[in-house]
């Protein structure tokens, strides 16, 4: 039986078929081109929008100080979002990571306490995180504070961390100190005590040796004398006179009989009492009670300022042995007990008149 010839699949296309094939190819290329163009436009729009998000004002409504913690990018982003510097949500978080990576050549992110201005942009935030100056805190130690009160100041100071060792009385220089978040309290205390040591040594080397001869023989004794001067008067012009009275009494073997030493002992080193001293207080036993014990007390009773140290090292001249408050912030000085008695009576009359 005769078989039909197999179909010829390799035959040439006719003119109409060839033209249709070319048209279909052109359509596919055109379609792909349009898709690519659309994708390119979308990518460009994304980059443009991303750059806008990077440089546009951020959500922060008012200037804010923020602690940027250690621990990596995640914790940085968390701190920024919690404080309103970076918008919340995964999109902002992701874009911040991308921006931080893309600008990584500009420096590392620092853990610090930093100030961010109102409406800060992401670009500006990254600049602050990399190059911003940490917020500076200050702590003022006033002249005449005791070690006990200085310790309280240090423990209550914001932004410091860590505990403190024992603070020696008179070992801290009265001054305003500056520090940044995260500083160890012990490191700041070391700076305070180092400054006092240098100040005391410099003043000691320039002391009036003739005025102190036979009475004040060490820097430590000078520090004790200066602490008494500091607590007796706040008037700079009186300090050398107060120092002279104490030196004159020491030379003659007289008890110093200065109230601040009694207060120091009664207050357990606090340096202040919530009430006036009584005659009974003056008889209360304490190694610091200069009404009971001759000579200098066993240690300083506060941290004296530079002016009191200078006054102790360069006392006034004269033979005064007594002084009593005037009631107006200063003191009347006397050479004899009779003069002192008259000054005390005048002081009591003034107080009585003021109370009426």
Automatic annotation (TrEMBL):
Pfam families: YceG. It is found in: Cell inner membrane. Its EC number is 4.2.2.29. The chain crosses the membrane at residues 35-54. The record marks 232 as: Important for catalytic activity. It catalyses: a peptidoglycan chain = a peptidoglycan chain with N-acetyl-1,6-anhydromuramyl-[peptide] at the reducing end + a peptidoglycan chain with N-acetylglucosamine at the non-reducing end. Keywords: Cell inner membrane, Cell membrane, Cell wall biogenesis/degradation, Lyase, Membrane, Transmembrane, Transmembrane helix. Residues 9-21 have a biased composition (Basic and acidic residues). It is a single-pass membrane protein. The keyword Membrane applies. Residues 1-24 are annotated as: Disordered. The keyword Ion transport does not apply. Functions as a peptidoglycan terminase that cleaves nascent peptidoglycan strands endolytically to terminate their elongation. Belongs to the transglycosylase MltG family. This is Endolytic murein transglycosylase. It comes from Bombella apis.
